[in-house]
Amino acid sequence: MKNLFKFSLVLGVTLLTMNVQASDVDFSLEVKKEEGKVITFVFSETNKLDLSIYDSEGKIIHSENFDSPIVNRTYDLKALPEGIYYLIAESEYKISKYEISVIGLTAKLLEPAISEEYKPVLKEQDGLVKLTFLNLDKSPTLIKIYDKDGDLVYDSGVLRSQYIFKIFDVNNFQNEDFTFEVLDNDKTFSKIFSKI
Predict the structure, then answer these.
(1) Is 79 helix (H, G, I), strand (E, B) or coil?
(2) Average confidence score pLDDT of the chain
(3) pTM, whole model, 2 decimals?
(4) What is 120-194's CATH topology?
(5) Element (H or E) spanning 22, and its range?
(6) 83-98-191 Cα angle (round to 5)
(7) At CB < 8 A and 24+ separation, what contacts does 101-107 make?
(8) Degrees, nearest 5: CA angle 54-116-179
(9) Which class would CATH give 28-117?
(10) Per-residue DSSP letters for 112-139?
């Protein structure tokens, strides 16, 4: 009975931690107006947001960066030929992909996102690095840590959990700089930490 209580307590704290961190990672899109080939939209609940438009072949057409809690944009897409385009919105924690269809004299930005991918959250405090990753599709994920010389000091092996939560005590590491890498779905997310 004690073990069940302890397990429930640990699980509750872990889920609460993940929920608090996940609530900080969302941004939302609202299409305000579509008139001809002009679209107006608002991203809210952002801190830092990178917006890019790609054609169907993956060629970048436009890109801009914002440091604002609200991003209100109007794009005139008259110069674009008919076809499907993609608006990619990337914050520190999430990447969302939206479809833009340009047909005849009209352009439409479709909601909701056709794909959303959460990025790993890495935070350092008092010599501990906490890693939280919402792996919705349970795809194979690897966590690797390299020292400043590029030598591998940690390899998690393949993880397939939906919620990945790890704590690393970097006080025990020999070098001062460490690169944390999370590999998921052919993407690599990395962050460098320095021991002070």
Answers:
(1) coil
(2) 85
(3) 0.74
(4) Immunoglobulin-like (2.60.40)
(5) helix 2-23
(6) 125
(7) 102/37, 102/77, 105/36, 105/37, 106/34, 106/36, 106/37, 107/34, 107/36, 107/37, 107/38, 107/39, 107/77, 107/80
(8) 90
(9) mainly beta
(10) S-SEEEEPPEEEEETTEEEEEEE-TT--
